[in-house]
Amino acid sequence: MASTAPQTGTAMPAEWRDFFTLTKPRVMTLVIFTAICGVLAAPGSIHPVLGFTAILAIAMGAGGSAVLNMWWEADIDAGMKRTMNRPLPGGRMQREDARDFGIFLSGVSVLLMGVAIGWLAAALLLLAIIYYAVIYTMWLKPRTPQNIVIGGGAGAFPPLIGWVAVTGEVTAMPILLFAIIFFWTPPHFWALALFVEADYAKVGIPMMPVVAGEKPTRRQIWWYTVLLAPIAIAPWVIGGTSWLYGMTAVTLSLLFAWLAWPVGSRMRAAEGDKMLPEKKLFKFSIYYLFALFAALVADRVAAYQGWIA
Ligand code: HEM
Ligand SMILES: CC(C)=CCC/C(C)=C/CC/C(C)=C/COP(=O)(O)OP(=O)(O)O
């Protein structure tokens, strides 16, 4: 397999780098972070080696399903500026190699989870992989502008799986963690879709701004942000966390709403502003989720140490 990958000065050989790129490593940092938080925030204890193994399995499953997404969408990716240099449309890799790599990573991840941790967590991981690679990528994404709302559920699995890996059961708290990411995904992605809209239109993907138009998309970003707030605060309300997480969730939710309002009400960037409101919201959405899940773990550590009641 001849590689024409640009040399970026990293130590990794070019072909390895392409395989690594297929796993969408930048997006997966947050996916894996939420999984780690699911493991650390769950009540009960897990041997550190097993905890690490559970996180490794989730990371491999998430990466494997991302590879299958890139394999399936190679032609679509070739038509968009944002994605045209990915390893497959860039012509640096055989399609079959990507497919086999994705199946291998996904298969090993489920087996590893099942054998080392338990088959409930393994079944949830398999469901997440199928959700992202098949239900979202192959079925919903090319067919409906609600693709993100329903398909976004795939990215909501990692903290749930991490939690279940520790406790062995699905309870209200891990379901709430799932719901937080589920309702976070539409504002996260539609904010981005508003400023890369033309690209999706070009390749015929029915993203909300392309099909329904800008105004309804902006309105829905606002309403999903409003809906997200009580769900983000709910772990505190049901007594699953202390005020430390609760206050952080309230503050982050207010900030999210403050940034979503100009997007929802279609306020233009003011003179002197360096960034469009939707770009600001997209960036903040990422910090929001990092901070919220970090707060969940901080809350647990503080309670464990007896620093808070
Ligand atoms: C269907 C659901 C989602 C869609 C369609 C979506 C789409 C995107 C897109 C197109 C980007 C731009 C960057 C790129 O091209 O790689 C992006 C960035 C990002 N997404 Fe999402 N996303 C979704 C869900 C999620 C979830 C569930 C997470 C994590 C929990 C996540 C985390 C991130 C992060 C961290 C970035 C920034 C990556 C960077 O620094 O370049 N996304 N997302
Ligand atoms: C454990 C497990 C299987 C987790 C899955 C994690 C997951 C579904 C993450 C979704 C995030 C993601 C890469 C969205 C990109 O959407 P896209 O693929 O439509 O974006 P693109 O246009 O950049 O390809």
- What is the arithmetic mean of pLDDT? 92
Number of helices: 14
Could you spell the SSE succession in H and E letters? HHHHHHHHHHHHHH
Beta fraction:
under 5%
Bound molecules: protoporphyrin IX containing FE, farnesyl diphosphate
Our Rg estimate from Cα atoms comes to: 20 Å
Named at the architecture level, the CATH assignment of the largest domain is Orthogonal Bundle
Tell me briefly what this model is.
It is an enzyme of class 2 (transferase). Helices cover 73% and strands 0% of the residues.
What does this structure look like?
The protein has 309 residues and is mainly alpha-helical. It folds into 2 domains: 18-169, Tetracycline Repressor, domain 2 (Orthogonal Bundle); 171-304. 73% of the residues lie in helices and 0% in strands. It has helices at 14-22, 25-41, 48-72, 74-78, 95-116, 119-140, 147-151, 157-167, 172-195, 197-202, 208-211, 214-237, 243-264, 277-305. Helix 2 runs parallel beside helix 8 (157-167) and helix 3 (48-72) runs antiparallel to helix 8. The chain starts with 13 loop residues before the first helix and ends with a helix. The structure holds protoporphyrin IX containing FE and farnesyl diphosphate. Protoporphyrin IX containing FE (HEM) binds at residues 26-27, 29-31, 34, 82, 148, 151-152, 155, 181, 185, 188-189, 192, 286, 289.
